[in-house]
Structure formats: structure tokens, C-alpha cells
Amino acid sequence: MFVFIIRYFGFLKFIPGLALLFDAQLKLWTLIVNPNLLDWIDDIEHEVLTWPGTTVTTHKYGGLQFNYNGKELGHIHSNGLLDMLLNRKIKQQLMQQDRRVQDHHSFKNSGWISVYMKHHDDKQLALALLERAYNLHADKALNN
Amino acid sequence: MINSIFSPKNNGFVFSNAFGMAAISISKLLMNDFNGTLIFSEFVIVPFLMGIISAWFWRNVNFGSRQLSAWSCYNTVFAIFLSALILKEGVICLVIVAPLLMCFIILGAFTGRRMFKKNNQTLNASIFVMLFGIFVFDSLSVHHYENKVADTIVINAPPAEVWKYVVAYKRIESPSKYWFFRIGMPSPVQSTADGYYQGAKRKCIFSNGYVFDEKIVTYEENKDLTFDITKQPRDPEIMGHIDILRGQFLLKDNHNGTTTLTGNSWYRLYVFPVWYYDIWAESVTRNVHLRVMEHIKQLAETK
User: Fold this and answer.
1) Structural domain that includes position A42
2) Do residue B70 and residue A28 have CB atoms under 8 angstroms apart?
3) Pairwise CA distance, residues A1 & A69, whole Å
4) What is the DSSP string of B260-299?
5) Which band of pLDDT confidence, cut at 50, 70 and 90, is reported for residue B238?
6) From B63, B109, B195, B243, which residue has the greatest number of CB atoms within 10 Å?
7) Domain ranges of chain B
């Protein structure tokens, strides 16, 4: 359903506030079908915020965005979809290592990845991925 | 005792709903053209602000997203209950409005939680002023929206046979398939006419006894029947928020023993935003068309 809406109605995301409303609807849906997921997203938020230099904001197209020094590490939509920008090399590696790591739902030929969190184990994967992105950004910041 | 009644949790429910009811009353006073119209702000800005207000009362309560979402849902149920009690809204209207209210109250509650975590008073005040400004501007604006819905079916009978059942038809006995009709929304069951000529009066009778008085304004036998609605019921259910202005049946001879029957309806909506309510209005109007047109098809093809 999510993929269908993004594919055929994705252009509507440019209407101010509509993507946020869609995310609120996802939250409502998640509350009905998989309420634990909302707790896992909270757990991830709490964990990421313990890492130095991180902040959390609302993603422009709905969801929770994790930042390091103002740069996006990734974001989680309220249906548990984690989107992250890494690079193509790491993306290939991760996709070979773990089948839960997929091409981004919209940007196929890019360094973006998507992970659909459905089970408790997926929370650990999401945290591991965010930590990897955090370390990449932190190393880059150190080198600069 | 008092502290348990006015706990942060309860205050979040009570004060956000009190604000909602007050805001709707104010909008009625501000609106120049108030005739039962419910505006965009009442379904978007007000629930959004209700969510923010509840989040302010809940800002020191230690809970997660799951509970905030659930409490926002309870808040919506509370708001819907008050709408039924104070605003005298009907069940079907409330079924239609519930998803919209729920999403905006949840959105407001999560936005509020972020706002009050940041604790930037300038930003918070700016958001309130901006939303209040939109609310006042919307209340003072003119609201007028009309639309037309058209539906077509092919009937295996010539136009002369179909025409017999277009002007008036006997009672529809078959059960309705449309879920809204099944849960109690009135559906068309019969049409009567006091004559077959331009200017004749026609009546469309609905399942709950509602009668739409109509006047035939175009009468071209076997081709075009157009009628204006001269009087229609207004009640707390959906009929109070939409006016059907005109109806039309167009018959086209396909020259192979079949007829293409087109049903057109023009209506005016009294609820906004139209991007939400027009979806429902189109769906209801379409199903009114189809119920009548399927009946005409059945009658014409049985002969």
C-alpha cells in the first residue's frame, strides 16, 4: 500500500504539510497493526540521541530524521521504513550481507537504502546501520 | 481528588476539546455567509491546534509515541462524541469526518511534542499566531463549491423502452451493494411524476422517507430529461452538508438495439476542504446514480 501510494501519488509530497499528514495516517495504521513498532522507533531515537552531535527533527516528507552536525544520517517513516544515504559500495556490501537491506523504495540507482522494520530484530539492524552512517560522518568530519 | 480530576492527562483531553468547541463557535460568528457551512479550518487547523494543546498538557508526562498516538485517538473519539452531542452531527457525517480529525489531531500532538521539547517560545508563539491567522482568514472568506458527477451505462434496449422508466419508476426492491447505504445512509427507492412534459413536478423518494421535490426543465422524449431540485431535506446526516442542484438523464441511441444512458448530477458542497469531502460527495452521488440507473436497466431489459 505504502509503495503504491508513493509510486502513484508521490508527486503530491510537494504540497506543504501533505506528507506530514500522510505520516500521521501511517502512525495511526501502525498503532492498529503493529503498535510495538512505535516503541522501537522511540528506542532508536533515545539511543541515537546518546551519540555526541546528533539531533532529531521531523523529516520534510514525514517521519523522524536523525542528523549528525545538521546533516541527515537517515529517517524513519511511521510505518517503520528506514531510509538512509550511504554510498553505492557500502550499499552493495550491505545488500549482500543482509536481505533486509534493500534498494531505496524510490531512488534505485543511488547510495540510498531502505529497511522495512517489522520485527524486534529489525530494530537492532536499524541501529547498526545508523551507527555505521554516524561513524562515516564522524570520520569525515574528523578528516576535514 | 481535584488533582486527580484535573490531572495533566485529563486536562489534555478537556482543554483541547473545549478549545475546539469554542473555535467552531467563533468561526460561526465570524462567517458572513454562514448557512450551515463547515470550513477548512474547522477540520484542519482546529484539530491540529487541539493536538498541540493536548501535547502541552502532556509535555511532562513520560510516555512514548504509542501512547501519544493512542491518547490522540481517544481525544478524537471525545471530539466526535461532543460533535454529535453539541453540534448535532449525524452518525454518517461522523464516520466521514473521523479519519480527517484523527490524522490532524495525531499530527498536532506530535508537532506539539517536538515544539515543547525545543521550548523555543518565539517559535511556539509564531506557530500559534500563524494558525490563528489562517483560521480567521478562512472564517472571513467566501466559501462556494459546486461540482458535477456523470455516470454512463449501456442498456440492452432501445431508447423508447428505456425512456418509459427514466421519468418515473416503480420502487427499487433489491438490496443495495454500496456500504454507505447498507449502514444507514438513505438511498433512492422510487421516482414519481405528475406528468410527462416540461414544467411537470417530479419526486424522488429515498429509503428513509426523504422526498426531493423536482421540476422538469427539459423534456425531450427518448433523449433528455433534466430536472431542477426545488426542495430537499436538510437533516443532521449528510443531506445537511450537500445540496443537489440539478439532475439529468441523457439517452443515446447506439443503433444496435442498445442505449447509452448517462446520469448527471450537479451539487453544491457546504463542507470544506473539498479535496477531502468531494471524494465522499462524488462517491455518494455516483452510487445514487448507479442505483437508479441499474434499476432502469433491469426494468427496460426485462420487457
Assistant:
1) 2-143
2) no
3) 34
4) EEEEEEEEEE-BS-HHHHHHHHHHHHHHHHHHHHHHHHHH
5) low
6) B109
7) 2-140, 145-302
Closest Cα in chain B to A23: B107
Task: Give backbone dihedrals phi and psi of B37, rounded to 5 degrees, phi first.
Answer: -70, 135
Q: What is the ipTM metric for this complex?
A: 0.86
pLDDT value, residue B150 = 97
Nearest to A42 among B64, B103, B107 (CB): B64
- Cα–Cα distance for residue pair B255/B13, rounded to 1 Å: 65
Query: Nearest CA to CA, how far is B290 from chain A (Å)?
Result: 28
Cell triple for residue B215?
421540476
CA distance B108 to B53: 8
**Lowest mean pLDDT: which of A10-14, B177-181, B267-271?**
A10-14
The topology (CATH level 3) of B145-302 is: Alpha-D-Glucose-1,6-Bisphosphate; Chain A, domain 4 (3.30.530)
